[in-house]
Amino acid sequence: MPMRLSDGIAFPRAMALGKTIPGITELVATCIADEARALGVHWNWAPVADINSNPLNPIINTRSFGESAEVVSAHAAAYVRGTQSRYVMACAKHAPGHGDTQVDSHMSLPTINVSREVAQEREFAPFKSCIDAGVRSIMVAHILVPFLDSELPASLSRQIVTELIRESWNFTGLITTDAMDMKSISDGWSSGDAALRAIHAGVDVVLMPHKPHEAIDAIMSAIEAGAITDEQLAASEARLDEARAFVGVRSRLSDAKPLTRDRIVVDQSAHAMIALKAADAAIRVEGKLDVLPITQFTQVAAFAVIDESETDIATTWFQSLARGTEIDVDFGFVDTTITDEDLRLLHEGIVDAQLVVFVLFGKAVAFKGELTNMTRIPQIIEQIAADKTVLIVACGSPYGIDVLPAHTRLYTYSDTLPSLAASVMRLIGRAVNEN
Fold first, then answer.
1. 383-419: string of b/e by CB count within 10 Å (b at 16+)?
2. Domain boundaries in the chain?
3. Quick one: angle between helices 377-384 and 340-349, nearest 10?
4. What is the CATH number of domain 283-428?
5. CA-to-CA separations, 389 to 244, 347, 355, 378, in angstroms, rounded
6. What's the N-to-C CA distance of the chain in angstroms?
7. Burial, 170: exposed, middle or buried (Cβ in 10 Å; 0-12, 13-18, 19+)?
8. Torsion over CA: 401, 402, 405, 411 (sign)
9. What stretch of H or E contains 304?
10. What is the C-alpha separation between 354 and 331, in angstroms, rounded?
11. Is 283-428 the same fold as 14-247?
12. CA–CA separation, 361 vs 396, rounded Å?
């Protein structure tokens, strides 16, 4: 919830959930759906069903349940079941698969250069799994998939929207575009032209045009001119009515829960504990396990290797560690532009430290265009912590962590609050169910 709103319980990111069992993912999805419905939200744009098959992908990354079709399929389907068990619609995205690219579609149009055979076995599998689980909507990506359509992005392509998703996958629910104000669309097509192309491709919902009035005018003009058929309009209207019935706005479906204005009470303390336990279940530790718990040491130095946008989250992590232990811990922030002289001074300042902890917060961010630059981080670690025991805590993307110089590596696969808390509790040897 905090991704879209200013409050609500934060849960571990999808990649962290993918390290657990599907039952945990399903439980988390029910909690999120309960909070959404309590706020009057009946359609959650999740799960991400993309496979993060390219570790350099700048926009999927920890939003994906993992790198294999088997894991992503199982957890995406579990998320669908959990969400829709609360009469909130789930949405499998970003079809037909946004994983194998190094381009952020918020910034430009990516090309997915895979063969039909690979896509059938890999990219398509999680979406088919979600359809089997009864997902009620699919979001189509702004990506070019040459073996399907070499000219138009998926969201504007009839070969992909209608022939692949609607006909080949036999999907009967709502199909929506990704946000049409993303540069992958807005840089190449006007809002009116893009909206019309998406409708002609077969989508039911044109999401967030760059210029909404232009898109509406273009669609209305096309309807009046007969360029959009009554048959297509009726089919989309029927699918929208079915969606409304499912969430309780109308009661045409026998299994639909009637809409109620009774107060919905959510036990956020219970949700917070579920989030923390899920985060703990996701943690993986590699290397020398005898470094943990860090409370065995009397002098510890901890550094957050961050960029400017990560200062707040690093501060939260440091505060959690400070509250959780009585040992002497020196904290510091380092960015990748630090000078060699400053690195030397930091090294001299931790001469008494028995353990040096480095925490990193890498994740995919829209419009950033790239992941955290890891190039200089090995040098930073080596110069600060030369000849000392090093523990790395990766609160986010796991990629590139395995080559950093360290005795022990702890992975959370998530940078949300429960994942930060779970990492600290693992460091100090405290179980998540302790009071």
1. ebbeeebbbbbbbbbbbbbeebebbbbbbbbbbbbbb
2. 14-247, 283-428
3. 40
4. 3.40.50.1700
5. 58, 13, 5, 14
6. 26
7. exposed
8. positive
9. strand 299-305
10. 14
11. no
12. 5
* CA separation, residue 97 to residues 54, 75, 210, 341 (Å): 12, 16, 23, 46
d(CA 176, CA 157): 13
Here the tokens at position 174 are: 């709502």
In angstroms, the CA 191 to CA 185 distance is 9
pLDDT in tens, the chain (435 residues): 556 676 789 999 999 999 999 999 999 999 999 999 999 999 999 999 999 999 888 888 999 999 999 999 999 999 999 999 999 999 999 999 999 888 777 878 999 999 999 999 999 999 999 999 999 999 999 999 999 999 999 999 999 999 999 999 999 999 999 999 999 999 999 999 999 999 999 999 999 999 999 999 999 999 999 999 999 999 999 999 999 999 987 655 555 555 555 677 788 899 999 999 999 999 999 999 999 999 999 999 999 998 877 889 999 999 999 988 888 888 999 998 899 999 999 999 999 999 999 999 875 444 344 445 678 899 999 999 999 999 999 998 999 899 999 999 999 999 999 999 999 999 999 988 754
Contact 102, 58 (CB under 8 A): yes
User: pTM for the whole thing?
Assistant: 0.92
Containing H/E element for 174? strand 174-177
> Structurally, what CATH architecture does the domain formed by 14-247 represent?
Alpha-Beta Barrel (3.20)
